[in-house]
Amino acid sequence: MNTVVKKSKLHGDAPVPGSKSHTIRAVLLGLMSKGTSVIHNPLPSLDCKSALSVARCFGAEVDDRPGLWTVKGVGSELKVPDDYVDCGNSGSTAYFSASIAALVDGYTFLTGDGQIRRRPIQPVLDAINQLGGTAFTSRPGVNACPAIIRGRMKGGEVRFNHCLSQFVSSVMMAAPLLENDTVIINTDPLEKPYLQMSIDWMSKYGVELKENSGDYTRFVIPGGREYTATESHISSDWSSVAFPLVAGIVTDSEITISGVNFEDSQGDKAVIDHLIMMGADIVKDPANGRIIVKGGKALHSGMRIDLSDIPDSLPALSVAAAFAEGDTTFTGLGHVRMKETDRVAVMASELTKVGASVEVGSDYMIVHGGKKLTGATVSSFGDHRVAMAMIVCGMFAEGEMTVTGSECAAVSFPTFFEVMEGLGADMVSA
To answer: Any catalytic annotation for residue 312?
Structure first.
């Protein structure tokens, strides 16, 4: 699907769907619990449905009615999958599933779509091997799925160094079902809010860490425990909030983004503060779970933004940086290059096509903002966040922007087109 977008004025209310990161954790911890877990307001995206599929593969019974999912888990009595386990496009699901597979006394063949078969997985496989399981990729020398995994892990000590939070969370969430305690040493931690999110979800399902250093460098997870089925409500996705938020400030608009939780552990809520520092007219309304945005105001940057904890924010923030006068320097980008695409290279490439000035180094990206942008044909590269970012870019660029492969937005924000069209965005998809 291609989306053609022109300069737009937005007005109205933008409801944002539930969080992908929360939903996937709720589903897979529900799988590892005895009893039936009830999940309200789950995100019905492709990635989250991949997590449901994985839960079925390992023996859970799931029901995915609109707005309400149930997962009848199997606790530690996980089933050896009858077939290969397909994680679709979901990196989180693939990484978390690897450690779940290492709880099973049998072989699991773990794979996903073309992007998953390019994304690195070796740190999780190394951890499984350190803890007594067996894990390796099916293609010698290729650090990506397909992976073959056999349990059972026993516990012990495992070390990570400057790794994606998903790798660490994978072992952390599976560890309570191991025979022995597990010690995780996590040197130079990345994406710390997502580690806290995993800890919080484990607590909701009845397991507390035995030790937590507080700086996310060392955890002790008790073994021989059981998760308890629970009822939960999924908070709105701050990573998705970023797109209507940026759209509102780069256009002559007035919008309200509703259904957000300012107390949530998601790190991407920091995007609001970065935009306010650029001069955006944004009002936080925590009491009512709203953000009120008035656009059309000139933005000024000169900022340096470390994305170590919020890598998913680069596409949206880089579009805001192109709109703002002055230079915006993004740092902490090593793991941003390991997402669905190399988002540093892709955003630099596509923004340059429309007239932006972007400079890229080994671990930085500088957007020289305030240039006149002109619509062009750009690619999503099959990356949901790139697709949404470039559609938002088209809302203030001159002329007409065509974003190819835009259907991938459904991976994390299945109602994106409905929400943006409801605000009055001048866009047509076909």
So the answer is: yes
Nearest in space to 250 (alpha carbons), one of 376, 369, 84? 369
- Rounded to whole angstroms, how far apart are CA atoms 366 and 216? 29
> Mind listing the pLDDT tens digit for each residue in 326-369?
999 999 988 777 777 899 999 999 999 999 999 998 889 999 99
Mean pLDDT of all residues in the chain?
95
159 is in an annotated binding site: no
Percent helix, strand and coil across the chain, each rounded to 5?
35, 30, 35
Q: Which of 312, 327, 342, 363 is catalytic?
A: 312
Task: Give the tens place of pLDDT for each residue, 86-112.
Answer: 999 999 999 999 999 999 999 999 999
The angle subtended at Cα 291 by Cα 287 and Cα 294, nearest 5°, is 140
Identify the pLDDT of residue 335.
75
Stated as kind and residue range, the H or E segment containing 187 is strand 182-187
Summarize pLDDT for 361-397 with one digit per residue, the tens: 888 999 999 999 999 999 999 999 999 999 999 999 9
Task: Answer yes or no: is 119 a known binding residue.
Answer: yes
- By residue count, the chain amounts to 430
Residue 139 labeled ligand binder = no
Residues 6+ apart with CB under 8 A from 328: 301, 302, 303, 304, 305, 317, 318, 321, 366, 367, 369
Compute how many other C-beta atoms are within 10 angstroms of the C-beta atom of residue 163.
22
pTM of the model: 0.87
- Tell me what the mean pLDDT of segment 26-37 comes to: 98
Buried b (16+ CB within 10 A) or exposed e, 114-124: ebbbebbbebb
Q: 385: annotated binding-site residue?
A: yes
Distance, C-alpha 75 to centroid of its chain: 26
Residue 382 in marked binding region: no
Question: What is the number of other CB atoms lying within 10 angstroms of the CB of residue 136?
Answer: 15
